[in-house]
Design goal:
The chain is 22% helix and 28% strand. The chain has two helices and six strands, in the order βββαβαββ.
Length: 141
């Protein structure tokens, strides 16, 4: 059984963010290790292949974060915050992101998410980039 270190909070005085796939707040107990994952694009292989399909890029961005987390023996449930950069953001792209986040976090323990519309990303053809912050239980516990 996995015990989550973080506690997600959504104050009742704020709008309900769950339909959009994020939480308002998260708290982490003292002593936990922070793992920072650089923005991951939708590259499908080590050569950097990118599909022109937005949903596919979102799914691979999340898969790439998951791969990075495995190096620390962590899962996607260890993530407390993501920053999502989206080229030419619109309502349809938000819907896709929300649907893909629901696949990754079906229990709806969504990390905090700041979504930032951008005109372009670092690599030609990149439509989305997601960076993540995760927490890891101290080794001595």
């Amino acid at each position: 059984m996995t015990i989550q270190a973080q506690e997600f909070k959504n104050p009742s005085s704020l709008f309900d963010p769950a339909p959009y796939g994020f939480s308002h707040m998260v708290t982490v107990p003292e002593g936990y290790k922070f793992i920072f994952i650089a923005g991951q694009g939708g590259e499908e292989n080590t050569e950097g292949k990118l599909s022109p399909d937005f949903r596919r890029q979102v799914a691979f961005s999340l898969k790439n974060i998951k791969e990075a987390l495995t190096t620390e023996a962590l899962t996607m449930d260890s993530i407390i915050k993501v920053t999502t950069l989206v080229v030419d953001h619109d309502a349809e792209k938000l819907k896709v992101i929300t649907e893909e986040f629901n696949k990754v976090w079906p229990a709806k323990n969504f990390p905090i998410n700041t979504l930032i519309p951008v005109p372009k990303l670092a690599i030609e053809g990149m439509l989305v980039e997601i960076e993540a912050l995760a927490v890891k239980k101290p080794d001595h516990q």
